[in-house]
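Quick start: read one record
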Amino acid sequence: MKNIAVIGAGTMGNGIAHTFAQSGFKVHLIDISEDSLTKGIATITKNLDRLIVKEVICENQKLETLQNITTFTNLTEGVKHSDLVVEAATENSELKLKIFKQLDDVCPEKTILATNTSSISITQIAAATSRPELVIGMHFMNPVPIMKLVEIIRGYNTSDSVTKTIMDLSKTLGKVPVEVNDYPGFVANRILMPMLNEAIETLYNGVAGVSEIDTVMKLGMAHPMGPLQLADFIGLDVCLSILNVMYDGFKNPKYAPCPLLVNMVRAGKLGVKSGEGFYDYSSSRKAEQVAKQFLK
């Protein structure tokens, strides 16, 4: 397996492309937006520079990594020689189903199709193709070049050989793959998202403020990042989408998104990506002032 195609040049997509390219794979980074591709390559370059400063890599390794990446806005051209495609588009089931149907039409017959989804059914995605045995989940963690875990999710029809191939490939990337079964949220988000949602409920109910909630979890539970700060980092829209998938899948009220989260997403307060969430990333305004306007 030498040729990897990555669909989507956003945070996860460029991180996945970076990781494969730094491990010596030839990567085609594909996005419908030329601007997104330019920003994606800029992010990869910046992250490689950080690794140089930390003396993790040298300048030659940076150049080799960037040379391993070719960008495309045309899906057919980008995937036509791929051994593996990793889809990292927005966490939207309709979009992913559409992409996988297209991939099935234009990819070589033996190409493995993986999705970086953090919650959507692999079996459902695979059903949009004529090769469900070659469809699998590769849920990378953010930031991809740093985080070791990859959740490997096999759908109902995913073959043993494909699962072994992807497990072995993940180890080649320096990752620790963990195989899990195809249920809403898998393992990581089935446990994480209710915790984040409960932290938001705690704020919504006025039990404590943003910094107080995060401080309790950091100092009391040894979490490296408080739950509200982590939600901002993930993206509040992404958190809401995952919770909705889990609520629809389990029909259990414990997965119902907090009204505060819903209102913040509606208002465009998405966290780091928008400059404002539970914390203000664009000014010195206190985090509580950002959140209070949504408490009513």
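Residues 23 and 173 are 6 Å apart (CA to CA).
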